[in-house]
Amino acid sequence: MREEFQLAADTTAIKLLYSNETSVLIFLQTLFNQEASANYSTLTRALEAYHNKDGGSPVVTQLELIDAKFDPLKKFGSFRARFSLHFHYTCSDVHNDAKDTISWDFKVDEQTGTIHFTGEEPWVRDV
């Protein structure tokens, strides 16, 4: 199941994005800029949710936003989140690390300053 979330953004920053006075990558990096921020936590929780069934209490340890695009006419954009994960399997005290990249689409509501993010459809493995 795709992960989804919404965030409020500064309307001034959105106007700069629409007028191409700031790049979409800078806009997104500013939106998710600080590891301790609520927006950063929201994104990392969504990324971790893609790996919840892998066990080991996944935690995003590094995050990079890449391949950002935005079409102001369609009010639609996309980016990829490249990240590292740390898994800690508490019962066996085993630690593992992995890397992943997940694509995200986003739609901007310029009037309300709300941005709706939708992650890619996860892989389904036949067992």
Put the structure in a nutshell.
With 127 residues, this protein is α+β, with helices and mostly antiparallel strands. It has 3 helices and 5 strands, in the order βαααββββ.
Number of domains: 1
Largest sheet: 5 strands, antiparallel
User: Numbering strands along the chain, what is their spatial order in the largest sheet?
Assistant: 1-5-4-3-2
Order of helices and strands: EHHHEEEE
Residue windows where pLDDT falls under 50 for at least 5 positions: none
Structural class by helix and strand composition:
alpha+beta
Structural notes for this entry:
The chain is an alpha+beta fold and 127 residues long. It has one domain (4-119). Helices cover 22% and strands 43% of the residues. It has 3 helices and 5 strands; from the N terminus they run E-H-H-H-E-E-E-E. The chain has helices at 11-18, 24-31, 38-49; strands at residues 4-8, 59-71, 76-89, 94-109, 114-119. It has a 5-stranded antiparallel β-sheet. A hairpin with a 4-residue loop joins strand 3 and strand 4. The longest helix has 12 residues, at 38-49. The radius of gyration is 16 Å and the shape is elongated. The chain starts with a strand and ends in an 8-residue tail after the last strand. 20% of the residues are buried.
